[in-house]
């Protein structure tokens, strides 16, 4: 059956659903298990899922079209004109973004020349490699917050442990290290940068603490 000279169904529909299910499964492992477990941030989860889905269906649809050179050049020109005015995305999140885009392209454009073993291997590598890199202590994600601290008597090398314990008790964070910044003797306070690993904090700690990056007085 056809509607407006377009078939209502063809055999590629089952192929599309099957490939998308594979792509969604792999992206879920990468985003939900690997990325979110370490970052505890939900800011980019929507972007990762939607962009991967959009890229998958665009590539799958375009594969069935025989585009002329002029039309292809026109599409590239349109994308070249577009400008996205958004907040700067961190490098780590940008890496995950390119990974989910790559997964969408691979899973949608793989043809009969690509075996199932090759396709599974590509998906496994793009999922396992970020998980392995995230587990390395050297590459462990580290976040930072800046606070204004008023207990000047604790800002001394001999009382570092007391200062660290006081900051952990007042912020609710498990702090990896701190750096002493600008000391204001007029207002009797000091700027301290707190470094912590998000994946080591409980959900209540990360979401409950309200520390401004511009500095919050403790």
UniProtKB/TrEMBL annotation:
Keyword entries, A-Z: Membrane, Transmembrane, Transmembrane helix
Transmembrane spans: 20-37, 44-63, 69-86
Species assigned in the record: Aeoliella straminimaris
Protein name in UniProt: DUF4956 domain-containing protein
InterPro entries per UniProt: DUF4956
